[in-house]
Amino acid sequence: MNETLLLLDLDGVVVFEAEPPRLAAVEILLLHDLLGDLLKQARVPVVVVTHRSKAEARRILQAAGLDSGVLSGIMAAEDLFWAGLRHQGPFRLARRGLRKSLILPVVEKQFGVPRERMALIDDRLDNLEDMLAHGLGLALLAPSLMEESGHSLTSFDVSEALEAFRNWGGSGRRETIVRLTAREFSVDPWRKTGLNTRRQGRHFFNLTRRVGQAARRRLFEKRA
Asked: Which of 23, 66, 124, 190 has the fewest CB atoms inside 10 Å of its own CB, making it the most exposed?
């Protein structure tokens, strides 16, 4: 089997959500120019995996120019929730939360690619560690930061990430995390989408996630 699959986080990898005082108002900023073209040229199925609701994710991806011609799928909070409920049950889901590894069996079934031949680019170390612990083939850590003045962003070079993905090529699990080189970029006008997703964010699964996080802190962390 030669097929591989690239999983992309949304926030911190495709876009950055900036908040006051760095910007005047909450706004989604684009992290990469011509991202859709680069992903098309890579000739690999790409699936976004995010903790945002599907409505939020679609709105953001539209602003980023990533449509169905670029992406093979979107796995959002709803998908994580139902996967966790099905595979772990309500108690374990409530205790562990919407971890991204919950979606691995779903992605395997839907795309016919085993998890050891999948790679994930994510800006959160805990997400990558969780995915590796559950059999992911390659984990790429994206730097993600906005300078206090709001004039510059720290992110990564998409070409470097895709080269690391190609060099790996699905050839066995790599259990150490690859840290992508931090690059500083100015917040040029083309990065500003004028978008915030407050309306799309008022969603049942977002509310469920917030309630679940509060419940875990109160019920489980105090017992540790």
From this structure: 190
